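Sharing a chain and its predicted structure for anyone who wants a worked example. Both blocks are below, sequence first, tokens second.
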Amino acid sequence: MQNAHTIKQFFLFAVIGGIGTAGQYITLIALVETHLVIAVPASIVGFVVGAIINYFLNYKFTFKSNKSHSEAMSKFFVVAFIGAVINTLMMYLGTHLLHMYYLFPQILATGIVLLWNFTANKLWTFRQDKDTHI
């Protein structure tokens, strides 16, 4: 039963991640195409927008958390930051050291970061104390 619940959570987490990614790309494109911000800072702003979307949707729907936002959000952004570091390292290794076409390491990094983010958020960020499930 617990495995089925975790699988359902994972798929919901992945779908919500797609929504957050859409928010990230919409922000990036809007800022760059309107000439408000150049690409790299716009990407950072987009990343933050996507992470905020992901946080609130996962808090409410995926993990149905009852933790305070101050606790859960700080943990969520630590996990997201580590995910960003993993992504950057994999992209660097793939493109600079292994000389791969950039989409191949990006696809691999996306999959690994998805697994990292889900696992860390389930076991740490949104972990529910057993006492709360009476």
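Comments welcome. Residues 2-33 form the longest helix (32 residues).
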